[in-house]
């Protein structure tokens, strides 16, 4: 390989890593918001609520990943917490999506109306923050009294502008990078929620982060 080709390869590698470093640095800079989100989630779990997670495409498998980690912790000795992914039931998702008067935009909102309780937590995942059914799911959740959390990318899109209780943004436009940061984010959510639950005195309204 020529020296110029070798130099070009190194520059490409550097750019690939740079695209991933800055969103993670911004996540670190936003640590207080992440901690506040986890504290609010832990309070809902402490009071008997469950986590309801949803997203489209690749985010649908992220929703399932989040749910199973809460229900079946991979770290021995950690408390299992109630969580459900609204993308797991293919019959319900496709039934609502093709149903008369409902459609794809309602696949999550419909399930929330029938499965969620006011004390629950709704976590909507969207790579660009503009998924209509994720937005509808969060809107329906807010109207029913759930704590709402948006895990989004880009500039946050419609989700960030919708009045969701807590918005966590992976500041990147490359959907691959967004998804990589999202995995880090929801692992941090899981870990900090357990930190707060292990300190019940930190879960009173007066002890908010």
Would you kindly provide a written description of the structure presented here, covering whatever features stand out?
The protein is 55% helix and 12% strand. The chain contains 8 helices and 5 strands. The protein has a 5-stranded parallel β-sheet, with helices on both faces. Helix 4 packs across helix 5 and helix 5 runs parallel beside helix 6. It is globular.
Detail the topology: elements first, then pairings.
Elements: H1 3-29, H2 31-46, E1 51-55, H3 58-71, E2 83-85, H4 90-98, H5 107-115, E3 121-126, H6 132-143, E4 147-153, H7 157-160, E5 166-170, H8 175-197
Parallel strand pairs: 1-2, 1-3, 3-4, 4-5
Helix pairs in contact: 1-8, 2-8, 3-8, 4-5, 5-6
Question: TL;DR?
Answer:
The protein is an alpha/beta fold. The protein has helices at residues 3-29, 31-46, 58-71, 90-98, 107-115, 132-143, 157-160, 175-197; strands at residues 51-55, 83-85, 121-126, 147-153, 166-170.
């Amino acid at each position: 390989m020529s020296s110029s080709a070798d130099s070009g390869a190194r520059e490409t590698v550097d750019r690939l890593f740079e695209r991933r470093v800055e969103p993670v640095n911004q996540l670190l800079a936003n640590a207080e918001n992440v901690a506040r989100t986890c504290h609010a989630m832990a309070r809902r779990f402490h009071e008997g609520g469950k986590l309801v997670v949803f997203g489209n495409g690749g985010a649908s498998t992220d929703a399932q990943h989040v749910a199973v980690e809460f229900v079946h912790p991979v770290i021995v000795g950690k408390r299992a917490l109630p969580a459900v992914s609204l993308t797991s039931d293919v019959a319900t998702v496709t039934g609502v999506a093709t149903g008369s008067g409902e459609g794809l935009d309602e696949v999550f909102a419909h399930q929330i109306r029938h499965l969620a309780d006011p004390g629950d937590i709704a976590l909507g995942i969207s790579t660009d923050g503009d998924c209509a059914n994720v937005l509808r799911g969060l809107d329906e959740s807010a109207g029913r009294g759930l704590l709402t959390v948006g895990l989004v990318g880009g500039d946050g899109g419609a989700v960030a502008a919708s009045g969701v209780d807590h918005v966590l943004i992976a500041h990147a436009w490359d959907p691959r990078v967004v998804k990589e940061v999202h995995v880090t984010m929801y692992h941090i959510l899981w870990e900090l929620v357990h930190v707060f639950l292990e300190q019940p005195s930190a879960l009173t309204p007066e002890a908010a982060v």
